[in-house]
Write a structure and sequence with these properties.
Oligomer: homodimer
Helix content of chain A: 40-55%
Low-confidence stretches of chain A: none
CATH class of the largest domain in chain A: Mainly Alpha
CATH architecture of the largest domain in chain A: Orthogonal Bundle
Shape of chain A: flat
Order of helices and strands of chain A: HHHEEEEHEEH
Number of strands of chain A: 6
Largest interface: A-B, 29 and 28 residues
Strand order of the largest sheet of chain A: 4-3-6
Radius of gyration of chain A: 19 Å
CATH superfamily of the largest domain in chain A: Winged helix-like DNA-binding domain superfamily/Winged helix DNA-binding domain
Number of helices of chain A: 5
Number of domains of chain A: 2
Strand content of chain A: 15-25%
Structural class of chain A: alpha+beta
Chain lengths: ~130, ~130
DNA sequence: ATAACTGCAAAACTTTTGCAGGAGT
DNA sequence: ACTCCTGCAAAAGTTTTGCAGTTAT
């Protein structure tokens, strides 16, 4: 456990939520200016391999890292306004069971991102359509 | 409709399944050596925008493109052996309904990739564990 | 001591963009 | 004609790698 590794995990914890390697790098650098971005990647990958960290792509092909929490959770990402809502894992439980029963497949859905349109944007869109019929 | 565009869509059709821009590029080049990779990307993006083509990341951060089929489908990707199995859309229907009911969220799950361990690798693993107890 | 970790620099890799010229309708 | 499309080259962006030196245990 080097001081860089500690600082990287601490930064991930301090920032909270889903963070890119770059964001973590920026914070670590305030304390250890010599730390390199590749070290950040190496330690995040290690965290993922050890099961301490999960990674998700919330869109745009950029990985985001987060500490594993007590309660597994997922995300609903609005493709219109960009809002990211949290989703309890239990909603995925029936799907997980169905995949196992019907396909013998053990799904690793630890940190899912589901894309779509959020409730707010739905009603906003409906209101707009009422204004401009046709 | 230029001859490049036609060739790109034809290549996607001919190859079938999920293809990377690079794969399509290679095939198109056998017929039109002067075609550029950026043209492939531009036309695939156009196809996606028109709803003729779907894109999925089957792992590794590389986009894969596929013609839209009559029946919407998804994929089960085995993280151990790399097998990609097909998943009927109806399995996702309850989840879609739950997200709408509980969160007012309209999920755009048109071409999902779910990662995990396939049935074969499950039994292979169990067999190995029986061999090496402990 | 020795194995693991780091910094640096450079590259790998997919994807995007600006621009000038060319093709389609 | 006039817009859309393409080729080229270059860059943008994230992530990986080789290597030599340093650090942890």
């Amino acid at each position: 456990m080097t001081r860089q590794r500690l600082a990287i995990f601490a930064a991930l914890a301090q920032l909270g939520g889903h963070r890119t390697a770059e964001e973590i790098y920026e914070l670590v650098r305030t304390q250890y200016p010599e730390v390199n971005l590749s070290t950040v990647y190496r330690n995040l990958d290690l965290g993922v391999a050890l099961g301490l960290v999960t990674q998700t792509d919330l869109g745009g092909g950029i990985r985001r890292f987060e500490f594993v929490r007590a309660a597994r959770h997922h995300h609903l990402v609005c493709q219109q306004c960009g809002a990211v809502a949290e989703l309890e894992d239990e909603v995925l439980e029936p799907l997980r069971a169905a995949l196992h029963q019907r396909h013998g497949f053990v799904a690793h859905m630890d940190h899912f991102a589901i894309f779509g349109i959020c409730a707010e944007c739905q009603s906003r869109r409906q209101a707009a359509e009422a204004q401009l019929p046709g």
